[in-house]
Design brief:
This protein is an alpha/beta fold. Helix content is 35%, strand content 11%.
Length: 379
Amino acid sequence: MNSRLLILIRLFTTRLPVTSCRSHLAFQVILLVVFSALCGCAPKPMIPYSHNTPPLILVPASAAGVVDGRSRFREIYCAITNERGRELPDYRPCEEALVRLENEAPPSGTPVDFGVSKFPLKILIVLGLGAKCVENFLDFQMTVTDQLGRFGHEVRILDVEALSSSARNAGIIREAVMKMPDPKGGKHLVLVGYSKGTPDILEAVTTYPELQQRVAAVVSIAGAVGGTPQANTVEQSTLNLLQYFPDAECDPGDEGALKSLTPEVRKRWLATHSLPGSIRYYSVITYPDADHISSILKSSYDKLSQVDSRNDSQLIFYDQVIPGSVLLGYLNADHWAVALPINRTHPFIASHFVDRNGFPREVLAEALARFIEEDLSNR
């Protein structure tokens, strides 16, 4: 058994003093669940042999209809970093935050507008696996809402079921969007998916044609577009333990979350469904080097590295790209750092377990909004 897991079990089973921080105890629960799920004692293939798969081929992004927007996104991201990055939390120089893979085009030289948006966006964020169970522990919105609100954008979280399938959550997304006022003539509606939130969104806009007239764009941030081999190594019953997380407000739902994330299911879905052409798609990829993986995620990173070391501890980099999307960039951040502000709300946990969690999320959010409004207005 993983030695770190044994340490965590001892921590969890030792009675804590009355004065101990409640969040410390709470996070021990989630650590135990995470490590039990991702660091099982008995090794087995992460991608099992199976005939239940469509024919697949790994090709460069351009051969999958992906538009390379990295150069312009880097221009915008770096301009914001230079303009006000040091005033915002978790400052990182641009070249340390964005990974430069080969064949990235040179900058265009087009100026970046830092003012109030002329093309305001209404942004709905769909979070990933288990998010609803831990939302009282983490403030998911704190890193983006105020920053984007300064420039006229509206941001809120669209709640889905933490442990349910993408098909079920797609229906929830449909209901939430259809209850909103028609955005025609107002703010343009953008759905942002983090991790499992991305396939939930893709299933929604594909299954329900009525959404295609309301949604202008879909953004994937570390999205599980092609699934993850990690989902083959975890039992749904283990994942369901998240509903007992302190102050959790979630239930097992249809218990289909993990199955929805298996590579077999996700790639079969992509092979049998065409994404609506009326919507613009954008992909942001997490591509950390080994020094930017939090210690708590090292074991899952190493485990997934048996398939490909170019992973963020949960997803391989090529499984995060929406076919036919605009590829915006590669972030030097692990799967949690890009979206979960643990370092800002729980310093003890950040210093001991989630020790590579700092990332300039406000800069990322503004860069995304400015790229999207520029791109949509040009279209």
